[in-house]
Design brief:
The protein is of the alpha+beta class and 333 residues long. The chain is 39% helix and 18% strand. The chain has three domains: 57 residues, no CATH class; 64 residues, no CATH class; 184 residues, Nucleotidyltransferase, domain 5 (2-Layer Sandwich).
Length: 333
């Protein structure tokens, strides 16, 4: 950081680049190497930081300019970027709080997107409902609540696989460096961006529904990275549990709700009625307890166990699911 001024004086190609962009590049590089050395120390697979070529650098971050000039000008129709000037912008909604920095990203569809980072954003607490819920995320159903409700898994990647296969083949057949290949790559990137937007929109809507209905939401503290390394990696990535839980936590904090993360071990195997361990393969979708006779959907049983463990965590008790109350409803014997 201290050498940026000297480098800009000595190298003309850096003199025309705003200092904030250079500082952000150094920050990213430092973050990448810190993560690399942390993985080396922890004995994990280190993965040396990859050089990011010109075609892969898609985000420019403008830090807070200590000037009197505002970021948004001309009736909220222009975005003022240091070193670039005023550019047209479609402001979807007014930002709240104090705007500190702006990140401008080139999307796969060829459009530029601006992301605002704000501080002192006022919270919007929702009225209390007096309800709590345990949520079990899965693949066959994206989420199952402890009251028996289930949220269907849209599977956006799986739904678009046919189009993706065609677009990928078109890219592989084009000559490298040709304009036709560039167009095919842009088409493929646009499809991937659409899949990501569909998944993110679904996560936002599902999280908002839960936050509006429940004061306390219990979820499993999943190791998504570990789950994504197994035989169901494609399905795990398609569901995007990590992104969903992150969005849910953000909305809950803004609304004054409570998120409780519980130990996920045994939630699908333990009986929510008597606490007995009922071992079953992943393909077995019905929980049938030989001890108490409880029969219900596997994901429903797991959601009840999540709610039970959350209750124990709030009361400072054990969190192993071995409870004598509350009991789960016995749907069939």
């Amino acid at each position: 950081m201290a050498q940026i001024k000297e480098v800009r004086c000595a190298r003309d190609e850096y003199a025309c680049i705003h200092v904030h962009l250079l500082q952000d590049s150094i920050t990213r590089l430092d973050r990448a190497y810190r993560a690399f050395f942390r993985r080396c120390t922890a004995g994990e697979k280190p993965g040396f930081p990859r050089f990011k070529g010109r075609g892969r650098y898609r985000t420019l971050t403008f830090k807070d300019c200590k000037t009197k000039k505002r970021w948004i000008v001309a009736g909220d129709k222009r975005l003022s970027l240091a070193g670039i000037g005023d550019v047209k912008i479609k402001l979807h909604r007014p930002y709240e709080g104090t705007l500190k920095q702006v990140s401008v990203t080139l999307g796969g569809d060829g459009q530029w997107y601006a992301t605002f980072a704000c501080v002192d954003v006022p919270a919007k607490p929702l009225p209390a409902t007096g309800q709590s819920v345990g949520v079990d995320v899965g693949i066959s159903a994206f989420a199952t609540l402890d009251n028996g409700e289930s949220v269907e898994n849209p599977r956006p990647y799986e739904a678009a696989q046919r189009k993706l296969k065609t677009a990928q083949r078109r890219v592989s057949r084009r000559k490298r460096g040709s304009s036709r290949r560039c167009k095919a790559v842009a088409r493929l990137a646009s499809l991937h961006d659409k899949i990501a937007r569909v998944r993110r929109d679904f996560h936002h809507k599902t999280a908002l529904d839960l936050v509006q209905r429940f004061d306390s939401i219990a979820v499993e503290d999943l190791n998504v990275k570990g789950l994504a390394a197994g035989m169901l990696a494609k399905q795990v990535h398609d569901a995007g549990w990590g992104q969903f839980i992150s969005i849910l936590a953000d909305k809950a904090e803004s609304a004054g709700r409570e998120i409780i993360k519980v130990d996920p071990r045994g939630t699908s195997q333990d009986c929510s009625g008597c606490g007995a361990a009922v071992r079953k393969m992943l393909r077995v979708r019905v929980h049938a307890c030989p001890e108490c006779g409880l029969v219900l959907d596997r994901d429903h049983n797991a959601a009840i166990n999540v709610a039970i463990r959350a209750g124990h965590a709030l009361r400072g008790g054990l969190s192993n699911g071995q409870l004598d109350e509350p009991r789960s409803p016995c749907l069939a014997r």
